[in-house]
Design goal:
26 strands; five-stranded mixed β-sheet; 489 residues; single chain; Rossmann fold; GMP Synthetase, Chain A, domain 3; 3 domains; alpha/beta
Length: 489
């Protein structure tokens, strides 16, 4: 039996009244959750266990208790789960299902397909006619990420690999932090699924999952921050997992509104480099933010700062089940064997070449410089990681989004999205000047352009909110190529 399912059973015996899963209306103890998982797994097996037994199952649901129960039920059955993020296009979703050879698709609403009730929610299950795909033996989850191109790639993970991450997180943080975890990221994102859900259940915490529209995240790229802050406070969330963009938005909103969240004792942030200045701002507001680092091929988390061991400017120490080596070119290699392979591809053996540049200090703290493929070489021969400069820009409250460029140019430039559309250029200029004070002369931003928010619909953002550099550079080519022209408009 999996570590997560075993933990659910043990917590149910030791603490019968402890709540494992809840929303605004539902409360399931650990024993009740185990019963729901067993009943759902049995129903799926009766209905689809014949010819489709063992075929991967696509899961196209928003955050709900039903998502959790279905995920755990698929673990119980040994059927691979293909979580499908809501931000995927129809073409991306279809590619993922076909690429992994899905036999079933579970989705919300009164859509075509057999009706099926989970946790009081009526779902539709559609039988698919995709050809079987050769997946690595032991594949429990095929997670797709839009990455830096439009074609999702399926990372195959075993349940043991994911649970190794979750149990390592519990071991370095401590189960005393297992209070009430509220997911803000989609459960279809591996970081929330593994580090949020699995870690909470292993530690004996309460996973309090609300629908996105109930917490102001119906559109994750344009959060309703007032509603989100209110939900975090009123629902008594004690832990969160955030991406840096959402952390910045919360800090700005808390500063303007005066709202404080004293019940929070752990806010993990990952997905991109975070400027130390932003972490200082969070601390001033009482937010206990701890930066980490990971990637899908490593089941989401590789390193993490914790309340017991933290160094600002680093992404923390390596989780105990992993190893990290720094190559001769500065690339990070994570071993020993974090994932199984890619759907439809060859089996993976040995460490993962991350494509990230970084270093390890004498105390074992990992620092990330940037992406190997993103390195800018200026006309003066300086090698610069744009993520470093962008983190300083994004630490300024006036700047919502930023992308730095300057390959073979005499100075660095930036595309800047202001916090508010009506913000005066002079205010942004002051923000850029403050950021430049924290940078050496060769890495300072010499010219910049204000522009509308990066648009996921135009392909300018990945699903988790990271800028797609190639797309943005193409869209702004006229400004970018005008190295000799200084523009602040």
């Amino acid at each position: 039996m999996s570590l997560v399912l075993s933990a659910i059973h043990e917590h149910g015996l030791i603490n019968p009244a402890s709540v494992a899963l809840s929303d605004q209306h539902l409360r399931l103890t650990y024993g009740e959750l185990e019963h729901q998982v067993e009943a759902t797994a049995a129903a799926l097996d009766r209905a689809f266990g014949g010819e489709l037994s063992g075929r991967p199952v696509g899961l196209a649901l928003e955050n709900r208790p039903a998502w959790v129960i279905l995920d755990l039920s698929l673990i119980r059955l040994g059927w691979a789960n293909i979580p499908l993020p809501g931000f995927f296009t129809a073409a991306q979703r279809e590619h993922a299902l076909e690429n992994a050879g899905a036999g079933l698709l579970i989705k919300t609403g009164a859509e075509l397909g057999e009706q099926f009730s989970v946790a009081g929610e009526m779902l539709a299950i559609e039988t698919l006619a995709h050809k079987k795909t050769a997946l690595p033996s032991g594949t429990a989850k095929v997670t797709y990420t839009s990455g830096t191109t439009g074609q999702p790639k399926g990372v195959c993970l075993s349940q043991a690999q994911m649970e190794a991450v979750a149990s390592s997180i519990v071991s370095v943080i401590g189960d005393e932090f297992a209070g009430r975890h509220m997911p803000l990221l989609p459960l279809s994102i591996l970081l929330e699924n593994v580090a949020g859900l699995y870690s909470s259940l292993i530690a004996g915490g309460r996973y309090h999952v609300l629908a996105p529209e109930a917490i102001g995240l119906a559109n994750p790229f344009k959060p309703e921050l007032g509603r989100l802050l209110q939900a975090i406070r009123e629902e008594n969330a004690t832990s969160l997992i955030l991406v840096p963009d959402l952390l910045r938005a919360l800090i700005v909103s808390m500063g303007f509104s005066g709202t404080r969240l004293p019940q929070l004792n752990l806010v993990a942030v990952g997905g991109a480099k975070v400027a130390p200045q932003l972490l200082d701002q969070a601390q001033a507001l009482g937010l206990p933010v701890f930066e980490g680092y990971g990637l899908s091929e490593c089941s989401s988390v590789v390193a993490l700062n914790t309340p017991q061991a933290r160094t600002i400017g680093s992404v923390g120490r390596i989780l105990p089940h992993l190893t990290v080596e720094v190559g001769t070119d500065g690339e990070l290699l994570v071993g020993p064997r974090p994932f199984l392979g890619y759907a439809g591809g060859q089996l993976h053996a040995g460490p993962v070449h991350t494509g990230d540049l970084g270093s390890l200090d004498a105390d074992g703290y990992l620092r990330i410089v940037g992406r190997k493929s993103n390195t800018i070489i200026t006309a003066h021969g300086r090698n610069i990681a744009p993520e470093w400069v962008e983190s300083e820009l994004l630490a300024q409250p006036e700047i919502r989004q930023a992308l730095v460029f300057g390959e073979a140019q005499s100075e660095l430039g930036a595309l800047i999205v202001p916090l508010m559309p009506e913000m005066l250029p002079e205010a942004v200029a002051a923000a850029v000047a403050r950021a430049n004070q924290n940078l050496p002369v060769y890495a300072q931003v010499g010219r910049w352009k204000l522009r509308p928010p990066f648009d996921a619909a135009l392909g300018e953002l990945t699903g988790n909110g990271r800028p797609r550099r190639s797309v943005l550079l193409k869209h702004e080519q006229a400004f970018i190529s005008s190295d000799s022209v200084r523009s602040f408009a």
